[in-house]
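> call design_seq(struct)
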């Protein structure tokens, strides 16, 4: 039976965690409240609760952002970008994990080394390369995300693949199965947990990325379209808050649908191998 001191400490810890959670969650509440206020109301009482639900901010955000168009563009970048990263990195990690050659570990070392390179260091060369290769478009930015996202995904897949029993592959090889059949029919389905984890993490990154589209395509994504409300001499806080809500809702729903795989996949990939 817990003593009074233990109960007090537990309750104190609970209160502290609730306070910390509210501190971190308050910006979300702040944006949601201001999305339903007029500009005058936001100026007079930016921290207050909305007295009425003003929907004009959402209507203006939808129109000014050209939301259907930028939504389709961002959805296409995210979908094809994540699919390419998952496919390329899972195949690369499988090949590196199953080959014991010294060259395999050297190549894997290059992937790991790429994780510590800040994007700001390679930002200018990437912009120049994109212009030279005619990749300054919505479709063109997708393979650039493949290159930037594969190192992290290979690192995550590599540890997980090493936990897949080799006996399954050896049995299939004895029956005459080729390497592609073994990977896609036997190994790949066993990676569904880490696949979901990589998909969620990279989808959050691609959907919310601002810097790479800014230096490559200049316009056409949801994050870039939100800059329309943040001018040099005028800031429209109401439509800006509404645009943030509209842009966050799809990816939040996607995250909530797959969140149970994240911790499980990361933990499994970290301890295997």
């Amino acid at each position: 039976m817990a003593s009074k001191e233990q109960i007090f400490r537990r309750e104190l810890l609970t209160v502290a965690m609730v306070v910390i959670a509210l501190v971190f969650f308050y910006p979300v509440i702040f944006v949601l409240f201001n999305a339903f206020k007029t500009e005058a109301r936001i100026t007079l009482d930016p921290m207050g609760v909305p007295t009425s639900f003003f929907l004009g901010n959402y209507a203006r955000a939808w129109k000014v952002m050209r939301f259907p168009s930028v939504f389709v563009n961002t959805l296409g970048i995210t979908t094809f970008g994540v699919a390419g990263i998952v496919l390329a990195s899972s195949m690369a990690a499988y090949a590196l994990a199953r080959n014991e050659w010294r060259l395999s570990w050297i190549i894997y070392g290059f992937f790991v080394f790429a994780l510590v390179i800040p994007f700001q260091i390679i930002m200018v060369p990437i912009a120049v390369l994109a212009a030279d290769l005619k990749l300054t478009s919505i479709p063109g930015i997708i393979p650039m995300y493949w290159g930037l996202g594969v190192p992290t995904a290979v690192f995550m897949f590599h540890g997980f693949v090493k936990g897949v029993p080799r006996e399954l592959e050896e049995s299939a090889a004895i029956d005459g199965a080729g390497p592609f059949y073994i990977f896609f029919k036997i190994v790949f389905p066993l990676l569904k947990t880490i696949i979901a984890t990589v998909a969620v993490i990279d989808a959050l990154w691609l959907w919310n990325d601002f810097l790479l589209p800014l230096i490559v395509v200049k316009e056409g994504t949801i994050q870039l379209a939100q800059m329309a409300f943040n001018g040099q001499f005028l800031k429209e806080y109401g439509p800006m808050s509404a645009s943030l809500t509209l842009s966050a809702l799809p990816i939040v729903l996607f995250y909530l649908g797959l969140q149970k795989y994240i911790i499980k996949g990361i933990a499994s990939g970290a301890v295997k191998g």
